[in-house]
Amino acid sequence: xxMDITSRINAINYSFSxxxxxxxxDFKGNIIAIxxxxxxxxxxxxxxxxxxxxxxxxxxxxxxxxxxxVYTPENFIDGSGVLRSLTPGxxxxxxxxxxxxxxxxxxxxxxxxxxxxGIDRVNAxxxxxxxxxxxxxxxxxxxxxxxxxxxxxxxxxxxFERAYQGELWSVEQSERFVEILKKQHYxxxxxxxxxxxxxxxxxxxxxxxxxxxxxxxxxxACRNDGGIFYTPYGGYVLTLLxxxxxxxxxxxxxxxxxxxxxxSRLLLDHFISKEGSF
Length: 278
Fold this sequence. Notes:
Blueprint: H1 5-12, E1 19-25, E2 31-34, E3 40-41, H2 47-59, E4 68-70, E5 91-93, H3 94-103, H4 107-117, H5 119-128, E6 135-136, E7 149-151, H6 153-164, H7 171-181, H8 201-204, E8 211-214, E9 217-219, E10 222-231, E11 234-243, H9 256-273
Antiparallel strand pairs: 1-2, 1-11, 3-7, 4-5, 6-7, 8-10, 9-10, 10-11
Helix pairs in contact: 1-9, 2-4, 2-5, 3-4
């Protein structure tokens, strides 16, 4: 029996208790899409539209990444990041807050930037990009709010696609976006099943084979990841969003972190075997 790439993905996810949404674009006219228009909780993936909004304001000259911002007590929140271990009153550049928001998914840095930009402005930028189901609902507050954001696999890919093509406001802002996301510390789904050699040029001594600019996000309702893969045969965008799984606990062996990485590995192997296409 011949199996196309979608059938192979469905075979991987046959035993997954939840629902996985997948969207992949090889920029050569080939799209892989499964549940691509289904709405999912974003968790920290909403930080990508926040960063895109910030860079839009920078591009328009309304803000500078050198501008200082202050972490004030009202923006304290537990969860991911490092600022919760530091003293309120700390002043950093806007770029530093944006970098912390992305690479260690810092929740306090995120709230500082939401205060700076405003929820309505973030959602207006999503609308301008055609991301009409993508919404930032509120600041991060696990007591007051059940949701943080919503998106679809196809819409979550839009900003990555624009950045890869140098069209996220400008080539300069696209490159800045990618530079920040390549420093990501949490590639929980995209890289877990990949051959480590591909990602470690410093220790192998060889040229780096693979780099990824990405942002993941996890809450009780979801485990998500998405980003841009850069390979010797060109690049592609992949987003993986999950929900409705039976296990709500947070740990590295969660089933989303089993099946999602298998899908990511399959797509990378497929892309490389076809020398740069799906």
